Amino acid sequence: MSEALAAFHFERPLWLLLLGPAAGFWFLTRRLLDAGARWQGVIDPELLRHLLLGQAGHARVDPSGLLMFAWLLASIAVAGPAWQREPSPFADAKPPVVIVLKVSPSMTTPDLAPTRLDRARQKLSDLLAIREGASVGLIAYSGSAHLVLPLTPDTSVIGHLAQALAPEIMPKEGDDLAEAVAIADRALAASGQVGSILVMTDRVAAEELGRLEAIKLAHPVTMLSLLPPDQPLETLDEAARAIGGRLIATTVDQSDIDAIARRLDRAARTEEVAGEGQHWHEAGYWLTPILALLTLLWFRRGWVLA
Question: Domain named VWFA: which ranges (predicted)?
Answer without folding.
Answer: 97-202
